[in-house]
Amino acid sequence: MLSEMVFLQSFGYYGGGTFGNILSRLGQLGFFDYVLPFLIIFSLVFGILTKTNIFKENKGINAIIALAVGLMALQFNTVTIFFSELFPRLGVGLAIILTIMVLAGLFLDTEGQGLNYLLLAVSGIIVIIVLASTAEASSWWYSWSFYSGNIGEILLIVGIIAVMVAVVVTANAKTQEKYKPVWMKGD
Fold first, then answer.
1. Would you list the domain boundaries of the chain?
2. CB-count burial class (<10 Å; 0-12, 13-18, 19+) for 66
3. 83-120, pLDDT tens digit by residue?
4. Could you tell me which residue, 60 or 176, shows the higher pLDDT?
5. What is the DSSP secondary structure assignment for residue 140, as one 8-state letter?
6. What are the CA-CA distances from residue 48 to residues 62, 78, 87 (Å)?
7. Which tops the pLDDT comparison, 64 or 117?
8. Rounded CA gap, 140 and 133, in Å?
9. Shortest CA distance to 78 belongs to which of 131, 37, 127?
10. pLDDT in tens, 11-60
11. DSSP single-letter state for residue 9
């Protein structure tokens, strides 16, 4: 008994009892592998079901479906591996986006819409990089070697798609004011 008391007394001196040890213990208990992914999936499914109002005001059904989806998602290791790969990269990506926003706010004109589109484009590129590196680390893609050899073609295709989307969106914004559906032309 005396040896346990001496051990407990010296535990804090040698680095035990710190916040890192608490997180390590939670990791050993499976908190980050099962509890947090379950809570994320449950809240997303519950929020989507509640917002879409599929089952009207019956939140009990929404909760049961969200509970079932959350538990079934954790049945295999795929979700756990995906979240453990995604969130560290997502944190770094968000830190980069926040830094760019702060620097842009300090040095660039914030009145024009050009800055917003620039930040949106940079954020989109960072999100694509985060998702691609997460997919590679999760063994969803074989490797970057295929993509690095064809990066020019891939960027060209993505650029063409982006230009097409931009043309369609701006054309819709201009013609939407003038356009009236057939059933409203009599009014």
1. 1-75
2. buried
3. 888 888 888 888 988 888 888 778 777 677 777 777 88
4. 60
5. S
6. 9, 22, 21
7. 64
8. 10
9. 37
10. 555 555 677 788 888 888 888 888 899 999 999 999 999 999 888 888 88
11. H
Instruction: Say if CB 37 and CB 80 are below 8 A apart.
Output: yes
CA distances from 19 to 10, 24, 50, 84 (A): 17, 9, 36, 20
For residue 181, which phi and psi values (nearest 5 degrees)?
-65, 160
Numbers of helices and strands, H then E, in the chain: 8, 0
Q: Which amino acid is at 147?
A: Y
* Residue 17 backbone zone (phi > 0: left; psi -120 to 50: alpha; other: beta): left
Could you tell me the two tokens for 26? 């939670």
Distance between CA atoms of residues 152 and 115, nearest Å: 26
Encoded tokens for 162: 């982006």
